[in-house]
Design a protein that fits this description.
CATH superfamily of the largest domain: Response regulator
Number of domains: 2
Structural class: alpha/beta
Number of helices: 14
CATH class of the largest domain: Alpha Beta
CATH architecture of the largest domain: 3-Layer(aba) Sandwich
Shape: globular
């Protein structure tokens, strides 16, 4: 039976924090929060919601499926999505599937059985949901692929994400600018660490960065000492921090133990950058500061940027991604067929493009709403993250998520 629970409006302070950007004391918390901490974080919005007036109930339920709670960013995404949809009177079912494909399939089956009215899915493996989403299509449930494109199914109505190729190009261009490669011959030594082969986005991130840097590699200004320049050589299953750390320890032992200087470690995201930075700290024989890239703005990585262990991250304001998903979902739940006009009609104050050519999931082009990410360094993190309300800064200079 469809759930009849009436969703409550979130506390006004949390809504304003999520919408303000409308674009996403002491030592920092670990990247993988303890279960108890996650449970407490999940309970907090409910407590605040009890003090807020109830939104007018729509009688409709939105199912939100996130990959895992072991990466900080998915906790933020799940929380923001839940907040946004409940703020408009929708009931929500939010699940995290522990990075287990079979669990995500089961979670989706349960939500379909609950007769949710809309599914918002960040897939663990974009290739593995065809069968269960065929059930969603048969039930007349529209599907928004959130952040990660879901492949080989015609059940996907829309895709909402950041411009994933641009994420990579921002990382690559940052390296070009920091090393002044257009004016300096080098050579500089660089190593790559990419993401999960099961994540469709991982290839876009890597290719975006590599396409920027390839001319400099071919010109001899950049040198990949390990020779590992193919995605499958540098990929990291499940974006796992320890996996990235062990692989990079092997690279340092095999190619840099003789005093060879490492100048750049280009990492596609923050969880892999965390492992690479740890390997550099413990196993790198050189005494130079290695330029380390990342993506997501995880708390531990922002601390590493403050401490000089990581150089930059590409921040994707998940509050904005949630707002775009909300307005798209709202239109779908009202029987509309959104297009480019949704952007102007919604009056978003963040950059977003409507794309009908880039993302083919194997059954055809999926209409996509693509947001623009931001480069964050130690020099601009306050303006980019604290001022919009995404993070607070403690007396020691460390940043902490506001949500």
């Amino acid at each position: 039976m469809k759930k009849k629970a009436v969703a409550l409006v979130l506390a006004a302070s949390m809504i304003s924090a999520a919408l303000a950007g409308c674009a996403a004391a002491g030592a920092p918390a670990a990247t993988e929060p303890a279960a108890e901490a996650v449970e407490e974080e999940a309970e907090a919005p409910a407590e605040e919601a009890e003090a807020a007036p109830a939104a007018e109930a729509t009688g409709k339920t939105v199912g939100i499926a996130m990959p895992t709670q072991s990466l900080e960013r998915w906790n933020r995404d799940g929380s923001y999505l839940k907040e946004q949809f409940e703020s408009r009177g929708y009931a929500t079912e939010l699940v995290f599937s522990d990075n287990k494909i079979e669990q995500q399939v089961k979670d989706l089956e349960n939500m379909i059985a609950d007769e949710v009215d809309l599914l918002v899915i960040a897939a663990i493996d974009g290739e593995s949901l065809s069968q269960v989403l065929a059930e969603a299509k048969d039930a007349g449930i529209p599907v928004i692929a959130y952040d990660r494109l879901i492949m080989n199914t015609d059940a996907v109505s829309y895709y909402v994400s950041f411009d994933n190729y641009t994420v990579g190009t921002l990382q690559g261009q940052f390296v070009v600018d920091q090393l002044d490669l257009d004016n300096v011959d080098g050579p500089f030594n660089i190593e790559f660490t990419a993401g999960d082969p099961a994540d469709n986005n991982a290839g876009f991130f890597f290719n975006g960065a590599y396409d920027v840097l390839k001319p400099y590699i071919e010109a001899g200004k950049l040198n990949v000492v390990s020779g590992q320049t193919q995605f499958d050589q540098v990929a990291t299953a499940q974006w796992n921090t320890e996996t990235a750390m062990k692989r990079f320890q092997n690279i340092l032992a095999s190619y840099y133990s003789d005093g060879t200087v490492l100048d750049v470690a280009l990492c596609s995201n923050d969880s892999t950058a965390l492992g690479v930075a740890q390997a550099i700290e413990t196993d790198y024989a050189g005494d130079n500061t290695v330029l380390v890239t990342g993506q997501d703005g995880d708390e531990a990585n922002l601390a590493n940027i403050v401490d000089g262990k990581q150089t930059m991250t590409v921040y994707k304001a998940v509050a904005n991604e949630a707002v775009a998903t909300l307005d798209l979902g709202d239109a779908l739940l009202n029987g509309e067929t959104p297009d480019e006009g949704l952007i102007a009609a919604s009056n978003w104050d963040f950059d977003c493009a409507y794309d009908t050519s880039s993302y083919d999931n194997g059954t055809g082009i999926i209409p996509s709403y693509l947001l623009v990410p931001t480069v964050v360094t130690k020099d601009n993190m306050v303006d980019a993250l604290v001022t919009p309300g995404y993070y607070t800064q403690d007396d020691a200079g460390y940043l902490h998520p506001t949500n």
